[in-house]
Structures are given as C-alpha cells and as structure tokens.
C-alpha cells in the first residue's frame, strides 16, 4: 500500500566542492531498497532542500525518481516561503513521475490559519498527485493545529508528516480526521511505538538513512503485534538516535554510511564533514553498541 511503513527522509549527496553527486543518490537508494525501505522523502530537512537552489532541488528530485520509481514511494518536499516556488517544484515533481509532494507551511514569517489554508489550497489545486502537509514547528516557527489540518484535508490533502515531537498532537490529528483515506506519518523514530499503536501508517525516520534494517525490523515488530520486543527496540532506537545527535547529526549520517561502505559523498556546504575528533567519538559509541 502506498505511503505506509518506513519512509526515509533521504540525505542529498554532494561532492566535496558542493556539486550534486549523482552516483551517491543511486548508491543510497539502492542501499535503502535492499533493506526493504518502503519510500523516500526527498529534499526535506535531512535532504537539505531549503538550503538548495530551485535547480538543485529539481535535479535531486529527478535522480530520486529515476532510481526509486516503481521500487518505493517517492515523496518530494516542495516547501518554500514563496508559493510560486512551491507550485513550480510541485508541478516539476508531478511531471517527472513522483508519487506525491509534501510541503511545510510558508516559513520565516508567522502566518495565521487562513493564510496557511490558502497556501495549501493553492498548492493542492495546481497538481494532480497527492499532497502531504509537513508539520515541523521547530523549523517553520509555528505549527499546524488539528482544526487547520481538517480544513486542508477537506481541500484534498492526502496526509500529514508530523514532526512536532508531540504525541498528543499526533493523536489529536487522528481524532480529528479519522474514518477517511488520510495518511498519518510520524516524523521521528522516537515516537514510532505510540504513533503506530494509535493508528499511524508509518514513520519518516531519519535513522533509516544509516540504519534502515533496524528501523524496518522495528516496523515489522509493531505490525505483527510483537509489543514486548518493540518496547525494547524503541528504547534502543532512542539511545541510537542520541548517539547520532552527540555530534552534528546530518554530517554524522554521511559519515556512518561511508563507514558502512555506502558512498554518498558529502553534505551541501555550509554543512561540513565531521572533524576527526567527532568521527572518532561517533565510531567509539557505535562500536560499543555493536553497530560497526
């Protein structure tokens, strides 16, 4: 089924001098596919979409669809402070064969509910593929309320990726828009256990970049009702996430993939690779957990 299971918020491979690394995109998608990841979420927070030019975002989208289409769901993040840019990116995603697009509300300025509703209404009406609402208050500066989500859903939005970190809010989203074909994706592996038990359809899990097999197996535990195992796995995943965040977490993802033999290049500047000290700290902690 579409838009369920583990969806990886895929990092975007670049060369050391800041050019898109096409082979890195292919290498990462193949790694994710071999580990049974259900979909990819492209140009989001992990994918550094807001830090890219329009042309870079389009190129990463094209490479992602080229290598993943027909093998896993492809959701392209098109969020921008400018509705015209979001619409341009969404139309491009539709034209190249993406399965869906997602957008944050417009960021930097704080908008009221009517303005956010108008933003999503305009986006939904301009494309013929599903549109997800991407709720990430720490990055946008404000959040989506359940009542606003219902208004946007009534206009045709197909689901939400909720990265608020607030499980009660996630429950309120489900309570407000139940009994319809609407996908609820939690945006952090930290909350997979409580979100899935309550009816969530899947997780957009940052850790699935570097450790997809761990996250996929966790999802299977939850789907099969193996809750005692799942509780222990949830605790382990929280510990693993803390390790990845003990150094700059996005560069850490590139570093771990390299350690695992997956060449994904480098993050886009001004992000920079881990220092030798940071890398050794990360390697030590992951080795202690028997992950390297």
CATH architecture level-2 label: Alpha-Beta Barrel
* CATH fold node name: TIM Barrel
Query: Between the first and last Cα atoms, what is the distance in angstroms?
Result: 33 Å
Q: Tell me the CATH superfamily.
A: Aldolase class I
Number of helices: 12
Question: Would you report the number of β strands?
Answer: 8
What does this 3D model show about the protein?
The protein has 292 residues and is of the alpha/beta class. It has a single domain, classed as Aldolase class I (TIM Barrel). 48% of the residues lie in helices and 11% in strands. It has helices at 22-34, 54-68, 83-96, 113-126, 137-140, 146-154, 167-176, 192-197, 212-223, 227-244, 249-259, 276-288, and strands at residues 5-8, 39-42, 73-77, 100-103, 131-135, 159-162, 183-186, 202-204. Helix 3 (83-96) links the parallel strand 3 (73-77) and strand 4. Helix 2 (54-68) runs parallel beside helix 3, helix 6 crosses helix 7 and helix 9 packs antiparallel against helix 10. The longest helix is centred in the last third of the chain and has 18 residues, at 227-244. The radius of gyration is 18 Å and the shape is globular. The mean pLDDT is 97.
Task: Give the topology, please.
Blueprint: E1 5-8, H1 22-34, E2 39-42, H2 54-68, E3 73-77, H3 83-96, E4 100-103, H4 113-126, E5 131-135, H5 137-140, H6 146-154, E6 159-162, H7 167-176, E7 183-186, H8 192-197, E8 202-204, H9 212-223, H10 227-244, H11 249-259, H12 276-288
Parallel strand pairs: 1-2, 1-8, 2-3, 3-4, 4-5, 5-6, 6-7, 7-8
Helix pairs in contact: 1-2, 2-3, 3-4, 4-6, 6-7, 9-10
